[in-house]
Design a protein that fits this description.
Layout lengths: L5 E5 L4 H14 L4 E7 L4 H4 L6 E4 L10 H10 L1 H10 L4 E4 L5 H10 L4 E5 L6 H6 L5 E4 L13 E3 L25 E5 L6 H16 L3 E5 L16 E4 L5 H7 L2 E4 L3 H10 L3 E3 L9 H12 L2 E3 L7 H11 L2 E4 L2 E4 H11 L6 H10 L6
Parallel strand pairs: 1-2, 1-4, 2-3, 4-5, 5-6, 6-7, 8-9, 8-11, 9-10, 11-12, 12-13
Antiparallel strand pairs: 14-15
Length: 363
């Protein structure tokens, strides 16, 4: 079979949309010519390989104001640009992961009778999946429970694919603080999280006094890094490509609760403190976090109720030392680790590849 099948991947904005699409693209690139549709002035250019032929549209994320309806209309008007791209590249199939680029892409595909697959990684489906999913040939789900929200769609549970590095063991990077103290990985997603950065700043003296080793990913947003005296146990970075190695080898992750992070924690079987972004659409981050909290693998802290005292007390409770048969251990942390081992895993990339390759054409 010659490689004449053309796949358009529409994924943009945040790591939650981009990383699953990248994982799928790598899995199917031997069978498909891949073209990538993104949005200008977002993270796309930083992550999309040149071989995927990135094309960007000038779409802005809608802001809640009196012009909101007009902003949505402007996004849908980009359908005509996308129609031209689909025709020009002779696209046979569209794969998208939600976000504002997805809506006009789905509409354009439908008008041209090109099959389209959307992957929904959140427990509570996003606006595009909710309102445009019925136009798609398949709606692939990161969580089984999402099916109950999408009655008019052809849904299939596949799980959420992760970056390749999460499916193999990685050694801890050399730059991570050395020592015997518990290692915390603190991160707020690809954009960073102001509230998490702030609470860590307020509690940093307490953490260092308790001998915690800390790797703090502050994100790409324009946030001022803060400095600590005698900070050999504290490392701060805007971004790192070694996130799998950090999560696999740390003792606890402190993070937002985007769907990508939830699935990475499940794959690495790593306990966490999750602080959902309170303004996420349909409060989906809290619903995502509830999955791990309900299993006993995570502690959920509501950002609106979070304080320095609550944050520090939570960490003290998790890392309280107990003695058993003459050996010291962290009873709560060990229990959280055991609970994380009980989460079911699924080979998501293989499942999604199967549905994408269903649309391969013989030439």
């Amino acid at each position: 079979m010659s490689k004449k099948n053309n796949l358009l991947v529409a994924a943009s904005g945040t790591g939650g949309h981009i990383f699953p699409a990248l994982a799928v693209s790598k899995e199917v690139e031997d069978e498909w010519n891949i073209h990538w549709l993104g949005v200008s002035q977002r993270l796309d250019a930083n992550f999309i390989p040149e071989k995927y032929n990135l094309r960007t549209l000038n779409i802005k994320t809608p802001r809640k104001n009196i012009f909101l309806f007009y902003q949505y209309i402007k996004i849908l008007m980009s359908t005509f640009q996308i129609i031209r791209i689909l025709k020009e590249k002779k696209i046979n199939l569209v794969f998208t992961t939600g976000g504002y680029i997805s809506a006009p892409t789905i509409v354009a595909s439908k008008l041209l009778r090109i099959p389209v697959i959307i992957h929904e990684s959140n427990l509570i489906p996003g606006m595009v999946t909710k309102y445009f999913g019925f136009l798609c040939n398949y709606v692939l789900l990161g969580f089984k429970e999402t099916n109950s929200y999408l009655k008019n769609c052809k849904t299939i549970f596949t799980g959420t694919p992760l970056r390749e590095q999460f499916y193999k063991f990685n050694f801890l990077p050399e730059w991570v603080p050395k020592g015997n103290g518990p290692l915390l990985i603190v991160m707020g997603g690809s954009q960073g999280a102001k509230a998490i950065n702030q609470i860590l700043n307020e509690s940093l003296e307490f953490l260092l006094k308790k001998q915690f080793r800390i790797v703090h990913i502050i994100g790409e947003s324009n946030q001022q890094p803060f400095h600590v005296k005698n900070s050999k146990n504290y490392i701060q970075k805007k971004f790192t490509n070694e996130i799998a190695a950090l999560i696999q080898n740390c003792d606890l992750v402190i993070s937002r609760s985007g769907a990508g992070t939830i699935n990475e924690l499940m794959e690495a079987e790593k306990p966490s403190i999750l602080i959902p972004y309170p303004d996420s659409k349909n409060n989906h981050q809290e619903k995502n976090a509830m999955i791990l909290a309900a299993s006993g693998g995570s502690v959920l802290i509501n950002q609106n109720k979070m304080s320095k005292e609550v944050f520090e007390e939570t960490l003290e409770r998790i890392f309280k030392i107990k003695s058993k048969k003459g050996k010291n251990h962290y009873e709560i942390l060990d229990l959280m680790k055991k609970n994380m081992e009980n989460n079911n895993k699924i080979k998501s990339k293989n499942e999604i590849k199967k549905y994408i390759n269903y649309f391969l054409k013989e030439f």
